[in-house]
Specification:
This protein has 368 residues and is of the alpha+beta class. The protein is built from 15 helices and 10 strands. The strands form 3 sheets. A 4-stranded antiparallel β-sheet has the order 1-2-4-3, with helices on one face. Strands 5-8-10-9 form a 4-stranded antiparallel β-sheet, with helices on both faces. Strands 6-7 form a two-stranded parallel sheet. The protein is globular and about 55 Å long.
Length: 368
C-alpha cells in the first residue's frame, strides 16, 4: 500500500515523525535499494539475442509484481517460458487470469526487444498443453524496430492522484487504437464509484488483504533480498518503520491508524481520475488473456510516449465470491454479452514514479 510523504505526515498525531540524530540522518540518505533496481540498468547488456530480449521482458508489468516467469534456453535459438507455480495469487486471482495477462506483457516486451535488435520471434503458446510451458519462442534474424520499444525504460504504473485536468482529445484518440477509452463524465463517475467500491472489498476482506500484506517488502534490506511483491521503501517510509508506525501488522489491521490513513490515500487517488481505459476480449481463453497482456503493455508504452499516466485498477475484475456483484457490474458497463473485460486502468496526467524492483535475469534462468 504506497504511502506518500504528504499524507503520512499525519500518521503520528501531527507531531514529529522521527527525532533525527546524526546517525539517523545518515541512515535515511542511503535507502535506495540499488541491487533490486539493477536489472533495469542491465537490460540490453547481453550478447545472446535471447538473453538480451529476456532482459527487457522481465521489466514487464505483472500483478503484485510477482514476476512469475521462469525461462530455459534450448539449443542456439529457442526459449521455453514457464509459470513458476509457487508465484500465484490464490485469493484474488484464483484462476490465474491476471497472472497469465502478466505473461502476455512479458512476451510482448520480449518480442519488441528482439525486433529492436534485428530478430524475429516465432511464438507458440502452450506447446505442450495448458499444463505445460506458457510459450515456446524461436529466434531468427530479420526483425524490425517498433517505436514503442523506445519507451520500455520509461514505462511505469502511476499510483498517485492525477492532475485536475481532462485527458486531451488528441491523446484519447491515439489511445483508442490500443484500448476502449472513456472520458465522458457519466461513465467516468460510474467507474470511479466502481473502482473505489472494488478496492474497499479487497481491502476489507481479511484473506484478500492479507495476500497483499504478505507480499509487502518493508525497507531497503527486504526489497533487496526479495525484489518482488509490493515495495515500501525510501527514506521517508523507512523513517515511519523506525518509528513503529508502518508495520506489517498495522497494514493488516483495519482498526489501525495506518490502515485508515491508507484508505484515505487510496480514496483520493482513485477519485482523482479524468479517464479510463479498458481491454475487452471476445472470449476468455488463455490465448485471449495473453493477447490482453500484450495489448496492455503496448497501451502502457504508448502512454509513456505521450506523457500520459496509466494505473491498473482491475480489482473489480477479480473472481472471488465477495467481488462477484462488482465483477458483474464491470462486465455490464464495459463489455457486450459474451465478451470479457480483462483490464481496467486509470488515465490522466501524473508524476513520473520510480522504477519497480526486479529479480535479475540470472535468477529466472532454469539452466543458467
Amino acid at each position: 500500500m504506497p504511502i506518500t510523504r504528504r499524507k503520512t505526515l499525519t500518521l503520528i498525531g501531527g507531531g514529529t515523525i522521527l527525532a533525527a540524530s546524526a546517525s539517523a540522518g545518515a541512515f535515511l540518505t542511503t535507502r535506495t535499494p540499488h541491487d533490486a533496481l539493477a536489472p533495469w540498468d542491465a537490460a540490453g547488456d547481453y550478447d545472446d539475442p535471447r538473453l538480451n530480449a529476456l532482459s527487457f521482458a522481465l521489466l514487464a508489468p505483472n500483478p503484485h509484481n510477482l514476476q512469475p516467469w521462469q525461462v530455459a534456453l534450448e539449443g542456439e535459438d529457442r526459449v521455453m517460458i514457464y509459470h513458476d507455480a509457487s508465484r500465484r495469487l490464490p485469493e484474488t486471482d484464483p484462476f490465474d487470469r491476471q497472472i497469465i495477462i502478466g505473461f502476455g506483457c512479458f512476451l510482448e516486451l520480449m518480442v519488441l526487444a528482439a525486433g529492436a535488435a534485428g530478430y524475429t520471434v516465432d511464438l507458440t503458446l502452450y506447446p505442450e498443453g495448458e499444463n505445460g510451458p506458457i510459450a515456446r519462442a524461436v529466434f531468427a534474424p530479420g526483425g524490425t524496430h517498433d517505436p514503442l520499444f523506445d519507451q520500455v525504460m520509461h514505462r511505469r504504473s502511476c499510483k498517485e492522484p492525477f492532475e485536475n485536468r481532462v485527458l486531451s482529445a488528441a491523446h484519447a484518440n491515439e489511445l483508442e487504437l490500443f484500448a476502449d477509452v472513456y472520458t465522458d463524465a457519466p461513465t467516468v463517475e460510474a467507474l470511479k464509484a466502481l473502482t473505489w467500491a472494488a478496492w474497499e472489498v479487497e481491502a476489507r476482506t481479511p484473506r484478500t488483504m492479507q495476500e497483499s500484506v504478505d507480499l509487502m517488502r518493508f525497507g531497503k534490506a527486504q526489497i533487496n533480498a526479495n525484489p518482488d511483491g509490493i515495495d515500501l521503501g525510501g527514506p521517508f517510509l523507512e523513517s515511519l518503520m523506525l518509528a513503529g508506525v508502518l508495520t506489517r501488522a498495522e497494514q493488516a489491521d483495519p482498526t489501525s491508524q495506518s490502515f485508515k490513513q491508507g484508505v484515505e490515500i487510496y480514496r483520493e487517488m482513485l477519485h482523482a481520475t479524468p479517464a479510463y481505459a479498458a481491454l475487452v476480449t471476445a472470449g476468455n481463453t488463455r490465448a485471449d488473456q495473453i493477447e490482453a497482456g500484450r495489448r496492455w503493455v503496448r497501451l502502457n508504452l504508448k502512454c509513456a510516449g505521450l506523457g500520459v499516466a496509466l494505473h491498473p485498477v482491475s480489482q473489480c475484475l477479480q473472481e472471488y465470491p465477495e467481488m462477484a456483484e462488482l465483477y458483474t457490474r464491470a462486465q455490464d458497463v464495459l463489455a457486450s454479452p459474451g465478451q470479457t473485460v480483462q483490464m481496467l486502468g486509470r488515465l490522466g496526467y501524473g508524476p513520473m514514479t520510480p522504477r519497480t524492483p526486479r529479480w535479475p535475469l540470472e535468477a529466472k534462468l532454469m539452466n543458467a
